Amino acid sequence: MKLAPIPEVVLGSIAFGIFWMLAVFPAVPFLPIGRTAGSLLGAMLMVIFKVISPANAYGAIDLPILGLLFGTMVVSIYLERANMFKHLGRLLSWKCHGGKDLLCRVCLVSAFSSALFTNDTCCIVLTEFVLKLARQHNLPPKPFLIALASSANIGSSATPIGNPQNLVIAVQSKIPFMKFFLGIMPAMLIGVVINIVIILCLYWKELSAKKTEEEVIEEGVVEEEDVNSHKFSPARMSHMSPQEEEPPPMNSRSKKGRSGLIHYSDMKSCLTRKEMIVKSFVYIVTVGMLAALLMGLNMSWTAIAAAIVLVVVDFQDAGPCLDKVSYSLLIFFCGMFITVNGFNRTGIPSAFWNLMEPYARINHISGVVVLSLVILFLSNLASNVPTVLLLGGQVAKSAAAISPEAETTAWLILAWVSTVAGNLSLLGSAANLIVCEQARRSQQYGYNLSFWKHIVFGVPSTLIVTAVGLPLIKGR
């Protein structure tokens, strides 16, 4: 694609630059409107500057991606109501033997749960609980917060539903769920292990802290109410719904057996049985959704169908649950689709790729290295989802000229590198920022994970994990 006329290139670059600035620095002092409003502003400027027509702007919005994102968020909300994340928290604290054991558990639970429930969701749910466990074991929180965020990023790379950029890649590439999973799974497993080893090497002494006898006596297990208190939504911390509150005890008249009225204890027993049935059905539907995805059914409609089934089976007003959906994230994606599409029309991304393409062909080791470095750089400069939208089509087209297998491999390399690139710095992924902000705002266990504290770990981990994982990615 040739460069557009100079006025269009300049105006399109200004609109994209504003979008990028607010996506990376949402609280910039002179325009602190946040990422979502920033994406809408960028989209509006693309239309006002006539870089993209209103009709093409609407056409740029990828509905299958939005549908898949919406469906997975609703399923995650119902899984939270079914205590899935409470059980994950219990798994972390059950029969734990010291700091190194706890750190390994945090990494493994974070990685595998992120592959199924998205990295952002797991980081929202587990951050404060990890802080509590670190305090309970008299250990510094920094290694555990880094372990949580970095493992969530690595683990999420294995499935199309693990993170937003994988959703984009899966829909645009039309790679089946199982093929996507098998293509990246070996790299993900090795990456998680290497990540654990790096964290243990960097923080070995801090994880070997000895506890006094008084601390051991006072320690105990984290209270179950602490685990239960972690109600979340992908958008914000959720509240207890009216259906989850215990019904008020009935008055004495209602307890007369001869009156034919149901005893309060009987009502509570019936309610408990109903809740158990509904919770069990949530797990069954979730497993069915994953099975359907593995069978290669349409990912968007599979996720939406699972969400609707859960709404119907719950048999009550779905408003409180649907209120927890991160609509701001969906709107952000709409604005980003329009903004990135407009920037692509300027011809700048194509010109950049034409410059790099001869050196970034994946049929040579040097080409894979160059491509990976470009993705790493852009993912930390412009964030991973815009990078995938900007480079995805160009990279796939170049690889398709080699072979169909090379095209699939190129998409998977893009998924792997753009995801692991999020570990390079705190600004590299939303999961990092979620962990950082959740930890900082915690009233009882507050901790400030700074940019420099993270980057000491982020640079070596990202480079090593990316390099070791690349040879294991196959498009067959």
Tell me about this structure.
- The protein is mainly α.
- It contains 23 helices and no strands.
- The chain has helices at residues 6-24, 34-48, 54-60, 63-81, 84-93, 98-117, 119-136, 142-156, 164-173, 177-202, 204-207, 213-219, 224-228, 264-294, 299-314, 319-322, 327-345, 348-356, 365-382, 384-400, 404-420, 430-441, 451-469.
- Helix 4 packs antiparallel against helix 14, helix 6 (98-117) runs antiparallel to helix 7 (119-136) and helix 7 (119-136) packs antiparallel against helix 8.
- The longest helix has 31 residues, at 264-294.
- The model is unreliable at 211-262 (pLDDT under 50).
In short:
By secondary structure, this protein is mainly alpha-helical. Helix content is 71%, strand content 0%. It has helices spanning 6-24, 34-48, 54-60, 63-81, 84-93, 98-117, 119-136, 142-156, 164-173, 177-202, 204-207, 213-219, 224-228, 264-294, 299-314, 319-322, 327-345, 348-356, 365-382, 384-400, 404-420, 430-441, 451-469.
Mean pLDDT: 82
Q: Termini separation (Å)?
A: 30 Å
As a percent range, the share of strand residues is: under 5%
CA-based shape: globular
What can be said about the biggest beta sheet? none
Radius of gyration: 24 Å
Low-confidence stretches: 211-262
Number of strands: 0
The helix-and-strand class reads mainly alpha
- The number of helical runs is 23
N to C succession of SSEs? HHHHHHHHHHHHHHHHHHHHHHH
User: Helical percent range?
Assistant: over 70%
